[in-house]
Every structure is written in structure tokens, then in C-alpha cells.
Amino acid sequence: MASTDYQPPNLATILQTLAAYAPPPPQPQPPPPQPPSHPPSTDLEEGEYDPSNFQPSSQPSQPLPPQPIQQHPSTPSPSTKASLITTWPPALRHTTHLLSTQPAFLPRLRHLIRSAHAHERQWWDDRLALQQRLSTRDAGRRKISSVLASLGGGGGVDEGSAAAAAPLGGAAGEAERELRAYDRKVCRAYGEMVKATGEELGRLGVPFFGMKEGSVVRDGEGEVGEGKVGEGELERLKGRMVEFLEDMVKE
Q1: I need a labelling partner for 37 at 20 to 30 A (CA). Which of 1, 135, 197, 251 fits?
Q2: How far apart are CA 66 and CA 220, in angstroms?
């Protein structure tokens, strides 16, 4: 039998050859940029709602995308027409016309009113929660005060115990101050919400919101003639219009 010079290939050589044809390893993808976070308010306890963070037309649900009110170029905008209305009958006709001819009007109106109600409920619920937290804290302080007072024995109170318990006597006043501070925040936020809601109603073309300059007469400062309205009457008409709009939203 003839001998051969065949030598089996070295395993390391085979692996090195295969590695030369292997695809390059995938490059790691850089992590997506993180949006900048806003530092939380330092004067709030964990989970506490700050009413000063009110944003007009915002609520927990996803807001509706902006939809422009449809209008013909040759006709005045709804807001322009509405700014000239100073009495209830034409205001009712104008608003009913908007409801029947502008598909985007009712959804935007519904979102605006529900957003305002959501903020009002949030403020009230958080006030109740604050009251409960302050009541629990006050009860704990009274218990500590009672324990300190009993350290004198026989119902007596020594000087050290009395000095330690004395600051606890103002707990009720402190709780009242915290509640008033919260109420002041809510009042400011409510005023901002009312102003923003009125401006948005004016842009939507709702009468009595966004009156023409010079058409509102201060009470007692002039005669209310045609095309004008007094301040007191205007507020009454605004309230009546809001009640009408809320009825439309409920339907």
C-alpha cells in the first residue's frame, strides 16, 4: 500500500479561517435620550397635589387635538359675531347655530367644562386628605402630650414635662394655618382657571365671553344704550350661558 503525506488540518487553523469570514458583531445602540425631568416642589409632602400647578384646559384624560372652527373666508368669525351680542335671545340663537353647524364646537366645549370640573374635584378631594392628615398628626401629638404630662406621677407635672408639652398646645392653630394656606392656593388657581376658561369660550365664539371693547359699561358710570351691557348684567348673562352649555354637554 502506498503511503500518503496527507495531514489532517489543525483545528485552531480552521477556526481562525472561519473567523475571518464571520460577520462583525452588532454595535450596541446608544440609549434613547431621556426627556429632562422637572424637580418636584420642595414644599409639598409625597403625593400631595399642588393647586398652583393648574394648567388651563388640562385634565387626567388625554386632551383632544386642536380642531379649528370651520368658517367661510367671506363671513365674520364666530368670535367676532359673538363680541357684538349683549342680550340673551340673540346669544341663544348664535350658540345654537354653532352647535348645529360646527362639528368641532361641542367636543371642545365638553372637554373644557369637564376639565374644569375635574380640577374642582381634585382640589376638594385633596383638601379632605389634608384635613385627615392634620387630624391624625394632631391626635398623635395629643397622645405624646398626655404621656409627658403623666411622667410627674400622681397627676402632677414637673417643670421638664411641662416645658416639653407646652409647644403642643398650638397644634390646632398650626393645622388651621396650613388649611388656610392651601385654600389661598386653591383660590388663586381657581381664579386663573376661570380666566382661562372665559378666554377659551371667547375664542370658540360663545357670547358674553370676549366682548367688544367699549361695549361693557361699569355699573353706575354711564347709561347702558343699544349695543352695550352693564357689568352686573354681563355677569348674570355669563352665568346663564354657562348653565346652558353645561346642559348641552350632559346630553
Answers
A1: 197
A2: 41
Residue pair 197/116 in contact by the 8 Å Cβ criterion: yes
State the cell numbers at 91.
Answer: 346669544
Angle CA 85–87–88, to nearest 5:
110
Distance, in Å, from the CA atom of 39 to the CA atom of 211, rounded to the nearest integer, reads 40
Q: What's the confidence (pLDDT) of residue 99?
A: 93
What is the 3-state composition of the chain as percent helix, strand, coil, each rounded to the nearest 5?
60, 0, 40
Burial of 116 (0-12, 13-18, 19+ CB in 10 A): buried
Q: How far, CA to CA in Å, does 190 sit from each of 72, 93, 181, 251?
A: 36, 30, 14, 26
Q: What does pTM read for this prediction? A: 0.60
Distance CA 132, CA 136 (A): 6
Q: Are 189 and 52 in contact (CB under 8 A)?
A: yes
Which residues, 6 or more positions from 125, have their beta carbon under 8 angstroms from its beta carbon?
Answer: none
Residue 229 is given by DSSP the state E
**The three grid cell numbers given for residue 217, joined into one nine-digit string:** 359699561
CA separation for the pair 130, 135 (Å, rounded): 9
